[in-house]
Design goal:
globular, five-stranded antiparallel β-sheet, 4 helices, alpha+beta, single chain, 10 strands
Length: about 230
């Protein structure tokens, strides 16, 4: 969404507006689009409907963002430790909303986002990349080994490719997974969707969710159909 909202006052009930979007096309080009939408209540938004034709106009000029500097230091060794032992089983259970399996990898303090899952809408998660950053790594001199203790926390930036049965496609998504060390093992406490491209190249077509990765029929702005 490009942030533009133009109210529509013609409807007797509910709320409506033209919402502006920048849409990445399959050929790597961008277009500016306006979508008229109506919702019964702006406070809930669960019954959003498109109420007219989508408008297409000239593409908006996009600047390349600068690199985003992380606040915490990366721990490559920890990333290797938790990828298969914690993150892989967590995403498998979370994608299926398998409460029994989730209980094996969740901390007692885990919030509802980590416990709810996706209900099988996507399946067969493949972890493409893991970067783990932590306060302990940040506060440890570069010439010393990082030693964790119970109660230490870290954030895993995870790039996952899902199978999407409904559209017979693959979808790559980014997540920030909060983990905590408890009784000598790492457990998940929370998960947040979305992951910044720290290389600053998303708008030029080489970062997460880039235009060059869009394939017609895919479930998101990054992915490819089976057999192509």
């Amino acid at each position: 969404m490009d942030g533009t909202v133009t109210p529509i006052t013609e409807f007797a009930t509910g709320e409506a507006a033209y919402l502006g979007f920048i849409v990445s096309m399959a050929d790597g080009q961008y277009q500016t689009m306006s979508v008229p939408v109506w919702v019964k209540s702006g406070k809930t938004g669960n019954d959003l409907r498109i109420v007219g034709d989508v408008g297409v106009s000239a593409p908006m000029r996009l600047e390349n963002p600068p690199p985003a500097k992380a606040k915490l230091t990366e721990d490559v060794q920890l990333a290797g430790q938790v990828k298969d032992s914690l993150l892989a089983p967590f995403f498998s259970a979370w994608g299926a909303s398998n409460a029994g399996q989730l209980n094996l990898v969740l901390a007692d303090s885990a919030g509802p986002r980590a416990r709810t899952g996706l209900g099988g809408v996507v399946t067969k998660p493949q972890i493409e990349k893991v970067t783990v950053r932590s306060p302990r790594a940040t506060n440890t001199p570069s010439n010393q080994s990082i030693v964790y203790q119970d109660g230490d926390i870290a954030v895993a930036e995870v790039r996952v490719t899902w199978n999407v049965p409904a559209s017979e496609s693959m979808q790559t998504s980014g997540y920030r997974v909060d983990i905590v060390r408890n009784s000598g093992k790492w457990l998940v406490t929370d998960i947040r969707a979305g992951l910044v491209d720290r290389e600053g190249a998303a708008s030029s077509g080489s970062g997460l969710g880039s235009a060059t990765d869009l394939v017609p029929g895919a479930a998101s702005t990054r992915g490819s159909n089976d057999g192509e």
